[in-house]
């Protein structure tokens, strides 16, 4: 990862929820890692801008997203620091933490033992000194007593995804449908020219005795273009994967790649929520009329306005028409939009207007319906 610094795989210190690696040679370098877990839907464009600004201020070295195909509700963000001392790391981390808090996303920094477990889980079942690593061309084999894991590493051509208009969200779901276990890693760092580059790869995990499939051929043949390439495993690649750093030559020099991923994830989740919301209404025997994707009339008493995107002009038109007739329940899909809406005095000044952030309810449709029923029958 760093040509001047020399590091060992398990030569780390876990102190106050920060993983530290100090170079073992004369070069005075320290790498440190802090982990954040948050719902994938919280990874908004605003949150992305916060992380990018931290890169541009040189407060962080890089950041990476980790997503498991079988656990897409949450994502793990690895924030890396490169400083000369722990004090400098802590100083940068505190500034970064304050900036992230200002973004008002629902997140938490992992602490103590949890951060150690989640940091190493990408490759190692547990943290044990008796660990054997065998590198056989494109396969990495890790043995810990009776546990054996085999890995393949695939680079993903971000530019090919953009050219063929394939959302990363679709690739993640395709991987899940193929019953492929592993981790997508999306690394973002700043170049010397102050531009962001994205490196995307997939670490394919196979437990001992599981059937081996040619994942590269499966994906490339389904999509009908070359997207995945098998990477030859070397020892430095093991460290790079563990640190969720870049591993391939396929990089996107455009932040639009990340924004496209956020956009596609957002709207697919909106569609899933709409379907579930209607189902829960039916299950609770609540009579409703769906006028559009945004408007639901509940038993001729309540109007639900679902704001998938904040549109103040649209909202004012609906309120002007229906505020004097119905009890109105506004569902705001993201916490960013919820905070913006609360600052609009001409809306918040209206009496008996209910405004709910779906992020704060965890998009729990049943909980939302219960609140609506309670509103209908005070």
What is the CATH class designation of the largest domain?
Answer: Alpha Beta
Question: Tally of extended strands?
Answer: 18
**Distance separating the two termini:** 62 Å
**What CATH architecture label of the largest domain applies?**
3-Layer(aba) Sandwich
Helix content: 25-40%
CATH topology of the largest domain: Vanillyl-alcohol Oxidase, Chain A, domain 3
User: Secondary-structure element sequence?
Assistant: EEEHEEHEHEEEHHEEHEHEHEEEHEHHEH
pLDDT < 50 stretches: none
Q: How many individual helices?
A: 12
**Range of strand content:** 25-35%
General description of the model:
This protein is an alpha+beta fold and about 375 residues long. It folds into 2 domains: about 10-250, Vanillyl-alcohol Oxidase, Chain A, domain 3, CATH 3.40.462; about 270-375, no CATH class. It has 12 helices and 18 strands. Strands 1, 2, 3, 4, 5, 6, 7, 8, 9, 10, 11, 12 and 13 form a 13-stranded antiparallel beta sheet that branches. A hairpin with a 2-residue loop joins strand 4 (about 60-70) and strand 5. The protein is globular. The chain starts with 11 loop residues before the first strand and ends with a helix.
